[in-house]
Amino acid sequence: QSVLIQPPSASETPGQRVIISCSGGNSNIGINSVNWYQRLPGTAPKLLIYRDNERPSGVSDRFSGSKSGTSASLAISGLQPEDEADYFCGAWDDSLNGPVFGTGTMITVL
Amino acid sequence: QVQLVQSGTEVKKPGAAVKVSCKASGYVFSTYGITWVRQAPGQGLEWMGWISAHNGNTNLAREFQGRVTMTTDKSTSTAYMELKSLRSDDTAVYYCAISWGVPADAFDIWGQGTRVTVSS
Q: Cβ(B74)–Cβ(B106) under 8 Å?
């Protein structure tokens, strides 16, 4: 059911940088903005990035987004133990006339 | 502050219906539409649909049309999502969300989630 494809997991040591990819298509990422969410275990999703690379108030600048063509990426720099969570991308899909989301990437801080 | 509070855990049998509520506070309810999203175990987020809190218009995901009903009650600032003919693969955590301070395709305020288990 997830239209956007992400790697299932990634891991890195504290202080390092990790990049999560999100691959979509011409009806979603190719023509619309990408958003990124963080979901800590047992909690609701939290918006980290909207409009490809903008951060809501209160979100650390360690999180940054980028997009190229039908793919997008979320970079987390200066990785911290509290960053251990599930990360999802999302974008509006013109064919569905609704938002689609990624399969999710679990980040482990070693 | 802006907040969405959902109803509690539900356990239902196959074929039954479930109605989840989402009570809004901290803003003028009719200003923002309510989006419903679910996450099944081990799966990604899945959009179910959207309802205007202003006039009740809905935009439902194709796979839920005919099985889901979304409503709002302005008097209590509450949105409802009812899913009928439940199947085991409807077991999921259901969320309501709004786009409060961000563009309409992003969701920055979420309810805490309602766990729905469908099992005989």
A: no
Mutate to test the interface with B, among A101, A103, A106 (most CBs of B within 10 A): A101
Residues of A in contact with B95 (CB under 8 A): 44-45
Torsion sign over Cα A14, A80, A82, A76: negative
Half-sphere exposure of A38 (CA within 13 A, CB side): 19
Whether A1 has a pLDDT exceeding 70, the answer reads: no
Rounded Cα distance, A72 and A58, in Å: 22
Chain B residues bordering chain A (beta-carbon distance below 8 Å): 35, 37, 43-47, 49-50, 59, 61-63, 95, 97, 101-103, 105-108, 110-113
Are residues A102 and B44, on separate chains, in Cβ contact within 8 Å?
yes
Taking the C-alpha atoms of residue A104 and residue A5, their distance in angstroms, rounded to an integer, is 8
DSSP SS3 for B88? helix
Q: Which of 13-42 (A) contact B at CB < 8 A? A: 32-33, 35, 37
pLDDT in tens, B79-103: 999 999 999 999 999 999 999 988 8
Residues found in chain A: 110
Give the pLDDT confidence of A58-79 residue by residue, as tens digits: 999 999 999 999 999 999 999 9
